[in-house]
Amino acid sequence: MPPLGPPPWTDEAPQLSRWIEQGFAAQQRGEVLLAAERYCAAARFGSTEAQYRLGRLFLERIDAQGRLEGRALLAMAAQGGHEQAVLAVMHTGFAEAVPDCLLTGAAPQFALAAAPAAPASPVAEAVVPFEVVHRFIDALPPERQRYAELIQRLAPHFQVDYRFALAVARAESNFNPSAVSPKNAMGLMQLIPETAARFGVRYPFNPEQNVRGGLSYLRWLLERFNGDVALAAAAYNAGEGAVDRFGGIPPFRETQDYVRRILNFYRAPLHVWPPQR
């Protein structure tokens, strides 16, 4: 079977994606037991990607029971529609040995043929990995992909993490440069006329002008709210005045849903400032 690359982009629950990303990072560092723990945490909640990755990892175990459990995990993922797992099961066959970690939630303990894994250590919440976002961009339709790449290219010039800017553009217009909202917000970054004028955007349906204006506003909000992603996102949606008035995220359903979408994409509560150019 081909080597495993970074996990693909997915819209499943952000905690499941985070566990899978942490598992992949741990596996890259050789921390196999930690990787298995993270994959199993996501697999318990039905993630076929986690079941597939844990199955592949279990196939490397030196004990026969572990390899049986690996085959069972691949079969679970295949039954859930995971395409790579379907192909893998054609080689490994089915098994019914459900791993204890799926039943109890206890961290898996086992030995590999390689050197012993380092002990598990806590993993802090991190921003969605660059590799995952690249796969998200690659999966977009070509006409939207070019605008996502425009944001990716311009964001560092405004000291904005392009992953955060992409989250905003996705929530605002889904990368549609012709989008217009009921409140007359326009273009890729959905600038209302006042915001466009404030940041020098003369032609809001010009994609590059619109993105530059939106990034200028995001940079201003991130500085104003000390890099707090939720507050910056809430202000972008409802205005900084509303955030000030309510002392945090305003109690508007639209704004709260919007902030949730941003955090689900970006994953982390604090903005990561790109290196200065």
From TrEMBL:
Limits of the Transglycosylase SLT domain: 150-250
Coiled-coil annotated residue ranges, if any: none
Xref: InterPro entries: Lysozyme-like_dom_sf, Transglyc_AS, Transglycosylase_SLT_dom_1
One Pfam entry name: SLT
Domain of life per record: Bacteria
A GO CC term assigned to this protein in UniProt: membrane
GO MF annotation list: peptidoglycan lytic transglycosylase activity
Recorded family membership: Belongs to the transglycosylase Slt family.
Organism of this sequence: Serpentinimonas maccroryi
One annotated GO biological process: peptidoglycan metabolic process
Name of this protein: Soluble lytic murein transglycosylase and related regulatory protein
